[in-house]
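User: Continuing from earlier, I have the next pair ready.

Assistant: Great, send them over.

User: Here they are, in order.

Assistant: Folding the first of the pair now:
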Amino acid sequence: MCVLDIAGEVLKATNIGRALTTLEEQRKMGNYQAALMAEEARKSEKEAAYQRQEGIEEARRQRLSAILKMGDKKAVMASNNIALTSATAMNAVDDEKLNGELNALTTLKKSEYTAQSYIDRANDYYRKAGLQSFKAKNNYRSGLRQLGTDLEMQFIKGFIGAA
């Protein structure tokens, strides 16, 4: 075997090493991107939980506000000598209570819609992360197969050339 043949074999081995390194780096980058997407999904889930809790707290504040308004109405009616047991007084107090509950339920519904949008975003990130992980694995395996095919072709060419 001459010096040029040895140099050619060393060059082939170096190219194979570079190809393997490149494939491995691409796989790692794909997995890293998948991990980033999964982290974004977890952040979206946390934000959804926060939005739900914020809605619950705001609804509670609205209900308390309605109770305070009911008390204020009762106090005003009592100071104006209106019987609190009369139908008109009871209707006014009930209206205030119902308005407060309606506001609270509307707030809860809005916060649930917002939370659901964050959940949808999280699910989308999880799907993208799974797809990215699959792509990384698939590209790595495909690259290895192609490298094996290339090596096989070089071996066959070398075998035929040596014959």
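And the other member of the pair:
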Amino acid sequence: MKRCNYRFFMITLFLSASHSALNAQYYVRNKQNIGLAVGFSSSLTENQKNFSVGLSSQINRYMIPEINYRNSTNFDNRIAAELGSNLHFISPGLQFKKRIISTPGRKVRGICVKEFLELAITPEYHFLLNPNTANQNNRNAFALRGSLIIFRYKSGSSRGRKAWSYKMEGYYRQGFGSQTYIKKELGIQCRITRFKIQNFLN
């Protein structure tokens, strides 16, 4: 009788472990991802405000190609209500970044939490989409964007924590050449990235 009970116990234990293994979920990121960035900047040399929105895809932890739409409004030279006279740009760029500082890990509701600070430099080229006769020879601009990026990491293997990344970026932009549209700017940008994930145990 004891031997029969022992066999029954072992079979039950095996079936329970098998069921847990089949239903286990451990999500990991793969290389496929897409990011959405929204930013705002202000010129340091004139009363110009700029709004940008763009897409990006992280290649690795050091490089992020991006392409942005930029809308610039110079309040010194026009009436704010004349939205049709804003300057519109398409701005491709390639961000190079390096993690420099991290806070000590701490437990929050059973989850390990850390903050990271990254330093980044982004060469950009701004193509003016609506040139007129007055700015025909002053239409495109090369610039460099230097950034400090902060984001929070939470441990765990759940789908939600692995799939999404949120980063805040404060930056200084310096324009070059004879163009007058982009000279010296301070700005802020929020980037949300959605990663494709897969169940590592399946």
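Worth noting for the second one:
The chain has one domain: 29-199. Residues 29-199 form a domain with the Porin fold (CATH 2.40.160.20).
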